[in-house]
Design brief:
The protein has about 350 residues and is an alpha/beta fold. The protein contains twelve helices and 14 strands. The strands form two sheets. An eight-stranded mixed β-sheet has the order 9-10-8-11-7-12-13-14, with helices on both faces. Strands 2-1-3-4-6-5 form a six-stranded mixed β-sheet, with helices on both faces. The two termini are about 30 Å apart. About 5% of the residues have low confidence.
């Protein structure tokens, strides 16, 4: 669904920059109309529906005339100016990408879920879930590494971390002020249009990977229910923006958490090859076999195993389970935690998952 965006501004150079950026970077999301005169703006809006009208501060337009025709947002020169003529505001002197996110954020609250946004294109999104009963086996590192691999191979990748102690910002950096906390608030409030809120909250890394910044408070993750996790995953898939979704999850054998695991085409479980880790993998495997007796849908058949942080002491060890092993990664000691995923992405591991 494209938003019809009108922009009314006196500063022609600023107007041209806005229009050029939005039509270049966000043409699939916005249909842009630009105006430098009040009368032409009003006439166009009366003739055809404009969803949102950005009005530069200083344009003497009668806001009341527009209330029934368009949703008005003012571009203001001071961050302290949070409202103008009873309309919301956006600070104009910031990166245009952040202005776009502010538009999404404000409009998502206004439109609510009255309008349902459809996929912009039909995309088959592959979902890969990472979780492990073996603490310290590098499950998150592997999840990030797979995201880097798929992005480097031309995939449209979304990395989604639902761990209670998520540390997404260690691995990824992007522009924007919204975090996963804002998305959780929207899910619980049930007032925002979640598709538009998604655009407002997502950040994009230099590797072209989309992600949410970690929550502002750890306790926010404890408020997120399994049903809300599933709802958000479905919103992401239905957006049509991604062909690869990486889920970084806590390990949990409860039946509720299994619902999230079952959304994945593949679940990747990691072990460091130690005796303790291999025993945990075996116990996890055996527990799943018990859980799935009589079940029509099998998680067991979707799981693959990867050995990570292998040393000379553990390189010949095995978990003795029926899952396919997709690789073994040696211990990496000479890099920072944030650098290790790039190193692992060079290994020929992830291509076979697709």
């Amino acid at each position: 669904m494209r938003i019809r965006l009108g922009i009314l501004a006196n500063n022609i150079m600023y107007l041209n920059r806005l229009v050029a950026f939005i039509t270049s970077k966000h043409h699939e999301s916005f249909e842009v109309y630009s105006f430098t005169e009040n009368e032409s703006a009003l006439k166009t809006i009366q003739m055809q529906k404009i969803d949102v009208l950005l009005v530069e501060e200083g344009c003497n337009i009668e806001t009341k005339e527009l209330f029934d025709l368009s949703y008005v947002i003012y571009l203001v020169e001071s961050r302290d100016n949070e409202s103008m003529n009873q309309c919301p505001t956006i600070f104009k002197y910031q990166k245009i990408e952040l202005i776009v996110k502010d538009i999404w954020n404000i409009y998502s609250e206004v439109i609510g879920n009255v309008k349902k946004a459809n996929k912009s294109v039909s995309i088959d999104c592959k979902v890969f879930a990472f979780a492990s009963p073996c603490g310290g086996s590098g499950s998150s590192t592997l999840a990030v590494s797979s995201a880097l691999y798929f992005a480097k191979h031309g995939k449209n990748v979304m990395y989604l971390n639902f761990e209670k102690m998520s540390a997404s910002d260690v691995y990824f950096c992007g522009e924007g002020t919204q975090t996963l906390s804002d998305m959780i608030f929207a899910l619980k409030g049930k007032k925002s249009n979640l598709r538009f809120k998604l655009d407002a909250c997502l950040k994009r890394d230099i590797h072209n990977i989309s992600f949410f910044s970690q929550t502002k408070q750890v306790l926010d993750m404890y408020e997120l229910t399994v049903d809300e996790q599933i709802e958000l995953i479905n919103v992401i898939i239905d957006s049509g923006m991604f062909d690869t979704l990486i889920l970084d999850l806590d390990f949990n054998l409860m039946s509720e958490q299994r619902k999230v695991y079952l959304l994945a085409d593949r679940m990747i479980v990691s072990s460091d090859g130690s005796e303790i880790s291999n025993q945990k993998i075996k116990r996890f495997h055996d527990a799943l076999m018990v859980q799935e007796q009589g079940e029509k849908v099998s998680l067991l058949k979707r799981i693959v195993l990867i050995y990570n942080k292998i040393t000379s002491m553990t390189r010949n060890s095995h978990c003795n389970v029926e899952w396919a092993v997709i690789g073994a990664i040696p211990m990496i000691n000479d890099l920072l935690s944030s650098q290790i995923p790039d190193k692992i992405a060079m290994y020929d591991l992830w291509g076979g998952l697709v």
